[in-house]
Design a protein that fits this description.
By secondary structure, the chain is an alpha+beta fold. The protein has helices at residues 6-15, 20-31, 45-68, 73-84, 87-96, 125-130, 136-142, 146-153, 166-169, 181-189, 199-203, 266-272, 274-286, 290-294, 309-313, 317-323, 329-337, 442-453, and strands spanning 159-164, 192-193, 207-209, 223-229, 232-235, 239-248, 251-256, 302-307, 340-342, 345-346, 351-352, 367-374, 381-389, 392-397, 401-410, 413-418, 426-428, 431-433. Strands 2-1-7-6-5-4-3 form a seven-stranded mixed beta sheet. Strands 9-8-16-15-14-13-12 form a seven-stranded mixed beta sheet. It is elongated, with a radius of gyration of 23 Å.
Length: 458
């Protein structure tokens, strides 16, 4: 395993053990069936919005005072964080982790709200980084690339920079090989977004586009994932945001405590997380699907709706035994093909279509978004519904299976972890009928997959 993957994957493994936000969201769905739901005791959506706004307003006002007494805005922001500890992170966690119970409402948590400080900036984001005592190593790395210096000094866009402080570089193992200049440039580009994301917008965003473009992810740029959990507000699950809203004349800077490393491929992530995906990996390997999934030359981006080990355990024992028998291998391959979408990358708040190179708006609109995604199983698509209201997002597949863990960012697409194995529909009176969790027998499964078996090669 490459050393550059160790840090993000260590955090990613904990994320795929369903973070608290996901656990509570699941409890919300299960307990919602009863009259005495635990979520009846939670604060109202209006209270949540008010608490988030007050938290950011308080931080913004405190930063204003710090900046007025300081010669440097970035230094003041980091100093303020060191003095106040994790107050902001705790507030965000308390108000955000249990928001799943309001997914069916039509409230948006103010994604356009800007909680910037009142002091008009007079330096570019590059000048702020290079003059800060906390980002000397980042500044030295940027200075190796004249194009980056021009970019961060320019006014072509309002940039967002997730700036790792010097201590973030100390987390790199001493025996790690020195990265090539090409690799270093990719890492730096992965910390920059060409779009404007002040803290209020980061809070209600799940993924952020970066300045790193790679052919393998599809038509759009590589993205970052933002998350709310025990660490507070983080990027890619492991890098904690420790300073917010340091405004320059051409953008905004957020300080982070760990370097952001571009992610590995989908297949690698599945391999690295056996506690979550060992059954899926076994199935992909047994059916010969793993190698083509790992071959980025045959697809440009993609979405894998990945059943967890728990999802496979929910299948009847006889079905699991049949699928993983020598006789059931072709059926297993057809079933897994139904979980893989090639050349179309669906994040929870962005979509890269295969036929819209450089033209499509990649943002998923607020409200309800529906899309049918063609799978590797011939002529079969997945009906995906995304309910999006600010940070509150719910994704369902075929109106039944829920995405438990969204946005496993990968170099060649995205992983959406589903709560159930996806079963292809069957035709009844010329109409397709989707499986909705009813009792399933081996014979019924074979009937659903039989039309595709003759075309399956092992």
């Amino acid at each position: 395993m490459k050393i550059t993957y160790i840090l993000p994957l260590a955090a990613l493994s904990s994320a795929f053990v369903i973070p608290d936000e996901q656990v509570i969201s699941q409890i919300a769905i299960e307990s919602h069936k009863s009259a005495d739901s635990a979520f009846d005791k939670l604060p109202s959506k209006a209270q949540v919005v008010e608490k988030i706004e007050k938290t950011f307003e308080k931080v913004g006002e405190s930063l204003d005072k710090s900046v007025k007494c300081s010669k440097h805005a970035l230094d003041a922001a980091i100093d303020y964080t060191a003095q106040t500890g994790n107050h902001l992170s705790k507030q965000v966690y308390q108000t955000g982790f249990d928001a799943g119970s309001w997914l069916d409402t039509n409230t948006d948590l103010g994604s356009n709200t800007d909680y910037g400080h009142h002091n008009k900036p007079n330096q570019t984001v590059y000048q702020l980084i290079t003059s800060s005592k906390y980002t000397t190593k980042l500044a030295a790395a940027i200075n190796e690339f004249p194009d980056l210096v021009v970019l961060l000094n320019g006014t072509l866009a309002d940039y967002t920079v997730f700036a790792p402080v010097d201590s973030a570089f100390e987390k790199i193992p001493e025996d790690a090989p020195k990265p090539s200049k090409e690799t270093l440039e990719k890492v730096l580009l992965y910390h920059i977004s060409p779009e404007y994301y002040p803290a209020g917008k980061v809070l209600v965003t799940h993924t952020v586009p970066t300045a790193l473009t790679v052919d393998t992810v599809g038509v759009g740029p590589q993205r970052l994932s933002t998350n709310i959990g025990l660490k507070g507000l983080t990027v890619n699950y492991y890098s904690r945001i420790i300073a917010i809203n340091v405004f320059g004349t051409n953008g905004v800077i957020h300080g982070i405590d760990s370097l952001l490393v571009p992610p590995p491929n989908v297949a690698d992530i599945i391999s690295f997380l056996p506690a979550e995906f060992s059954t899926l990996e076994l199935g992909l390997t047994k059916t010969g699907l793993f190698a083509p999934l790992n071959d980025t030359s045959n697809h440009y981006g993609g979405t894998v709706f990945a059943p967890s080990n728990f999802a496979f355990q929910k299948l009847p024992t006889k079905i699991t035994a049949f699928l993983f028998s020598s006789y059931g291998t072709k059926y297993l391959k057809a079933l897994l093909q139904y979980h893989i979408v090639a050349n179309q990358t669906l994040y929870s708040d962005a979509y890269y279509a295969a036929d819209s190179v450089g033209e499509a708006d990649d943002k998923i609109p607020k409200g309800i978004f529906h899309i049918d995604l063609p799978t590797l199983l011939e002529d079969k698509s997945l009906a995906v519904d995304v309910a999006r209201y600010g940070r509150l997002i719910e994704i369902k597949v075929n109106a039944f299976a829920r995405v438990d863990i969204p946005d496993g960012i990968a170099a060649d697409g995205v992983i959406q972890v589903v709560s159930d194995v996806l079963i292809p529909p069957k035709r009844i009176d010329r109409m397709e009928q989707h499986w909705q969790g009813e009792e399933l027998t081996v014979e019924d499964l074979k009937e659903r997959l039989e039309p595709f078996i003759e075309n399956v090669e092992l």
